[in-house]
Every structure is written in structure tokens, then in C-alpha cells.
């Protein structure tokens, strides 16, 4: 990576910084939370808000509190059986595709997996992506359209209201991009309500899906948790819940396939845990949290390839701020790019550009604390991704299972070059082709019948 200085001007009145600590204490820290830039406004329909796009610091804080308990890890572990159902189906698809002896786009299948998990935990039913790998209802295409629109139009956000209407007019009844996803979500909500269940108190809804919990919140406080809160919560799951997890899972597999020794070490940990009875056939989340190398691999892959690839823009408040001995007046747009922060050699060492999970297993608490402060794949401060625990749950449970049961190898097209990615906010791999085989025995070991 080529150094470009500590401050880079990448557009009119827009500045990106390489020194995270200098920016964090005046822009992102909870006590100095600044509003997001107008670039984020295009991620919601004109005149509406979402947790991700809301520029109002106070409204975002109020609404986040309404959703917070639903997304807590303590609540999400109740969804493990739903994740397992989708993991079963993905493993079955892998077994079927092996017979064809052709490379598959692993990134696409990870997105199918993530979409069906989101469907299960949001609506109580799979959306059907894992049945055949097809784009159900065209929602993947609509999301891709939304990513392109929001990323590019956000630069000229004043055009959003007019362009949004034009795009949806041209697209027809179901709309385009975000409008299409909103309509898709409304249809799923209507489907769930065609067979209405008794609306329980929120405290009684333990392992129920998000929609059931949102309906309970609405029934208890319809003026506080409105019908729009239900739609916004479900839509946010759809928009953010598939791409981020699919990209992160792809990043882990890609980094491992580029580093066979690391893959071997992780599979050894998986095999050892299995042999000791510490990892079930269907891994539990609790079991995976006792696998230090697995967690280090996940953390390092998300450091090397965080899902988002554009600056986390904030607006300088009234009175201006001083960052790195430079004054930035009110209205300036400032921020850091996660990719830059994650490759800072002052923090992660001279090998910051190298995939090395072992760095997270250091016994030096000062170094570890410093790295953790600079590890921000899910955002930071009050704007940290509210759904991050869903993604962590999915990755922690799926990865040891498929790496124990299958052998993956890069397709010939990827052995001699880096993969190709596209950055439309999400840094998504394109055509991540791999070959799959059954892993018949632990690495370097034989089954009992092989001895006889």
C-alpha cells in the first residue's frame, strides 16, 4: 500500500484521514458524535429515515434504543436453530454441486445463505434462495441497483428526491432499487400477517422472529414504535444483512485459500476440538467462542477485507474542529476509511498488508488493546452496525462446519491473480470461483477403517 499522507482531500470540502485516533476523539467518540453527511441520505427514500442513513443524531439515538434489545447477542443465540437449518441446506447444495465437478461462485452462495438466514430470523421463514440459487423475486438485482444508486447519487444528494421518483416511475409498479426492496418487504410482512398469531407481550416473545417482536412492540406502544418502525426494521435487515455477511464469509475463505498453512492450522483446531468432543456435528455458537484460532482468522480476514470501502463521513459542527494541527471549518466533511485504518503499520506492524491471524493471539495486552481500538469493520461509536451480532453468529457457526466437512480450492482463474472486487460502499467480490470436494478425514490422520 502506498502512503499518501495523513490528510487526503478526495472531493470539494471532503477530507479523509489516516490517523484514526486523531479523528476519533473529536468526530466519532460518543461524547462528540457528529451528524452524518448528506451522502447517507440516498440510502433511504426521500423524506424517510433508516438507522443507517439518519443524519439526525438525536432521532437516531432514540430509534436505536427502540431496536437495541432485539439485536443483542443474548437474544440472537435463540435463533441458532434457524441458522442451522440454512447451514444444512447450504451443505446439501455443496454436496450436489460437487457431483457436477464444476467451479461455483462461492460469494453468490454465501449471499443465498445469508438471505435465507435473514428471512428466517426476520419473518420466520426462508426466502428460498438456497433452494436453487436463484434470485428470488429479483431482490438481489434490486439491491445491486440500490447500492449503485445510493453510492453515486449520494455525491450529489440534492438530486435524490427527483432522481428517486424518476427511477421508480421508469421501473413500473414495483419500483427500482430501495423502493423495490421496500415493496418486497411489505409483501413478506403481509404474508406473515395472513395467518395472524396472537400478539404477545414483548417479554413473552423469546425465540420468535424479528417481525413478531416488532409487532409486539407496536402493540404495546403504537405511538412510539410505529408501523413505519416495523417496515424500517425489516427492510434494514434485508438491505444490510446479506451483503455484509456474504462478503465477510468470502473474505475468510479467500484469505485461507491464499494461505494454505493458515488453512491447515485452522482445520487442525477444528479437528482437535471435534475429537475432544468440544465441537458438535452442528457447531453451537458457544463452542465456537472457545476456538481462539477460528476467532483470530475471522477477525484478521475482516481486517484485511472489511465489507465497506468508503469514508465514514461526518459533518464538522458549528465552530469548526482542529485535526492534526489543521483547522476544518463548520460544514467540512471529514472521516476515515476502514481500509486505511486497518492497514496502519503503526498499529498492526510492518506486516499490516499480510494476512496473519496470529497477531490477534499476542499476550501483549497493550498491543492487543491498540489493535482492537483500530478494528472497525462494523463501524464505530454510536453508529456501530446494530446487526453485527447476526453476522458474527452466522460466520462463527458456518465456518467450522464447512471447513471440517469440505475441501475448497481456488479455480484456475484465481490462482494466478487477485480476485476482482467492486466498491459500491460494499466491497463485493465478483465471480469468486472455487472448487469443492468432500473432506473425508482430518488432515494428516486416518479413519479407523483405514488401519484395518
UniProtKB/TrEMBL annotation:
Keyword Cell cycle in annotation: no
UniProt-listed SUPFAM superfamilies: Cytochrome P450
GO molecular function: heme binding; iron ion binding; monooxygenase activity; oxidoreductase activity, acting on paired donors, with incorporation or reduction of molecular oxygen
Pfam families for the chain: p450
Cofactor(s) needed for function: heme
CDD domains: CYP57A1-like
Keywords (A to Z) from UniProt: Heme, Iron, Metal-binding, Monooxygenase, Oxidoreductase
Keyword Iron set for record: yes
Sites where the protein binds heme: 385
Gene3D superfamilies in the record: Cytochrome P450
Family listed: Belongs to the cytochrome P450 family.
Protein name: Cytochrome p450 pisatin protein
Amino acid at each position: 500500500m502506498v502512503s499518501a499522507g495523513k490528510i487526503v482531500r478526495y472531493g470539494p470540502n471532503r477530507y479523509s484521514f489516516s490517523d484514526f485516533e486523531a479523528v476519533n476523539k473529536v468526530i466519532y467518540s460518543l461524547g462528540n458524535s457528529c451528524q452524518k453527511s448528506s451522502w447517507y441520505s440516498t440510502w433511504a427514500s426521500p423524506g424517510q429515515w433508516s438507522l443507517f442513513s439518519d443524519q439526525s443524531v438525536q432521532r437516531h439515538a432514540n430509534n436505536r434504543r427502540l431496536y437495541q434489545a432485539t439485536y443483542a447477542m443474548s437474544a440472537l443465540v435463540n435463533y441458532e436453530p434457524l441458522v442451522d437449518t440454512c447451514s444444512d441446506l447450504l451443505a446439501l447444495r455443496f454436496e450436489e454441486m460437487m457431483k457436477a465437478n464444476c467451479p461455483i461462485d462461492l460469494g453468490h452462495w454465501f449471499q443465498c445463505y445469508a438471505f435465507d438466514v435473514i428471512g428466517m430470523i426476520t419473518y420466520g421463514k426462508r426466502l428460498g434462495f438456497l433452494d436453487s440459487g436463484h434470485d428470488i423475486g429479483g431482490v438481489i438485482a434490486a439491491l445491486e441497483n440500490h447500492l449503485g444508486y445510493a453510492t453515486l447519487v449520494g455525491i450529489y444528494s440534492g438530486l435524490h428526491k427527483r432522481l428517486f421518483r424518476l427511477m421508480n416511475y421508469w421501473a413500473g409498479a414495483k419500483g427500482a432499487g430501495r423502493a423495490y426492496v421496500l415493496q418486497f418487504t411489505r409483501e413478506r410482512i403481509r404474508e406473515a400477517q395472513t395467518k395472524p398469531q396472537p400478539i404477545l407481550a414483548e417479554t413473552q416473545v423469546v425465540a420468535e422472529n424479528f417481525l413478531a417482536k416488532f409487532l409486539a412492540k407496536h402493540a404495546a406502544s403504537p405511538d412510539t414504535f410505529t408501523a413505519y418502525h416495523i417496515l424500517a426494521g425489516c427492510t434494514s435487515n434485508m438491505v444490510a444483512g446479506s451483503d455484509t455477511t456474504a462478503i465477510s464469509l468470502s473474505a475468510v475463505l479467500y484469505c485461507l485459500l491464499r494461505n494454505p498453512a493458515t488453512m491447515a492450522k485452522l482445520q487442525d483446531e477444528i479437528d482437535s476440538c471435534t475429537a475432544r468432543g468440544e465441537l458438535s456435528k452442528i457447531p453451537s455458537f458457544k463452542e465456537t467462542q472457545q476456538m481462539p484460532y477460528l476467532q483470530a482468522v475471522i477477525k484478521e480476514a475482516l481486517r484485511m477485507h472489511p465489507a465497506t470501502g468508503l469514508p465514514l463521513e461526518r459533518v464538522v459542527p458549528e465552530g469548526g474542529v482542529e485535526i492534526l494541527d489543521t483547522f476544518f471549518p463548520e460544514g467540512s466533511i471529514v472521516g476515515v476509511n476502514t481500509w486505511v485504518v486497518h492497514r496502519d503499520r503503526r498499529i498492526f506492524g510492518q506486516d499490516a498488508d499480510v494476512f496473519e491471524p496470529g497477531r490477534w493471539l499476542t499476550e501483549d495486552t497493550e498491543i492487543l488493546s491498540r489493535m482492537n481500538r483500530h478494528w472497525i469493520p462494523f463501524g464505530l461509536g454510536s453508529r456501530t452496525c446494530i446487526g453485527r451480532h447476526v453476522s458474527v453468529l452466522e460466520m462463527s457457526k458456518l465456518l467450522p462446519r464447512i471447513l471440517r466437512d469440505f475441501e475448497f480450492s481456488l479455480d484456475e482463474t484465481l490462482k494466478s491473480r487477485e480476485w476482482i472486487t467492486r466498491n459500491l460502499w460494499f466491497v463485493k467480490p465478483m465471480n469468486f470461483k472455487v472448487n469443492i470436494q468432500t473432506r473425508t478425514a482430518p488432515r494428516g490422520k486416518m479413519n479407523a477403517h483405514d488401519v484395518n
